[in-house]
Amino acid sequence: MNLLDLQRRMAEDVMRPLTPDFQMQTTTSDGASTQELADTYIKPNDRLSSFDRLEIYNRQYWFRVIGAVSEDFPAVGALLGAKKFDSLILAYLRENPSTSFTLRNLGAKLPQWLESHPEFAPRRHKLLLDVSRLEWAYVEAFDSAEHAPLTPSDFADLGAESTLFLQPHLQLLDLSYPVDELVLAVHQQTPPSDIMSNAVTERKQAKRARLPKMHRSQVHLAVHRFENSVYYRRIDHEAFLLLTALQTGSPLDQALEAAFAGTTLSPDDQAVKIQEYFAHASHLGWFCRQLDAGSSL
Q1: CA atoms of 184 and 75, how far apart (whole Å)
Q2: What is the pLDDT of residues 241-265, one digit of tens each?
Q3: Measured between alpha carbons, how far is 221 from 231 in angstroms, rounded to an integer?
Q4: Furthest-apart CA atoms within the chain: distance in Å
Q5: Within 10 Å of residue 177's Cβ, how many Cβ atoms?
Q6: 151 backbone dihedrals φ, ψ, rounded to 5°
Q7: pLDDT at residue number 196
Q8: How far apart are CA 127 and CA 14, in angstroms?
Q9: Could you report how far apart the first and last alpha carbons of the chain are, in Å?
């Protein structure tokens, strides 16, 4: 076995998914014995067999990637409880293994994956989806790009067919529950060192966060970064429709039409709201210049 073959053999064995109780599998997918495979390239010692030594690396690899996802979704963990949460993350990672040099992207598909996996919270599936969407929006808002905001003189040149661009870090969410209250409660009660999976650290279970009661209620959120901190801002239905239309590239006149389609507001009231929307968004720097192709920040 040359060095390249050894590296490939080791990588395949280390990254093989754990069992549901977080142990190394005794056989591979094609039925081969893991013990026999380990014996071919790992030397045992007086305390550990080849299998035992390989299992240490196998478990530590998976504990690290489980921990990386867990740190991004503490409120999902608080909602489910440690045992069920760890099972969820392990099942998710079996289907969505790490394929990037960075662990940052590991949880990117979790909200979408949860849509087809209601078994982890059958009675609170929609609530779980909303919590996961908000927590991933936090990640995106925290480290996505920020372009130079528009200046007052830029707005003076806007016309009906103008296209406005929104900051890449701005995330717009249409939710069925006020989960911003739940997520904030978890962050306030959970020290940063405890925002990780219980399976990863194998520590005693931390005191479970007390969660506010959730009643179904449509909420629109703008999740954004301002002065290097992430904030959740509730916006009304028309503002959500307006910003969503602008975010998808609609010109200003079409975005305004979409925002107030079917509204019962008078033209004067609509004008007041539009003025408020643009004043708030401009103050927070949500409108920005479009970067030319090939430009960098």
Answers
A1: 9
A2: 999 999 999 999 999 999 999 899 9
A3: 10
A4: 84
A5: 21
A6: -100, 165
A7: 40
A8: 35
A9: 47
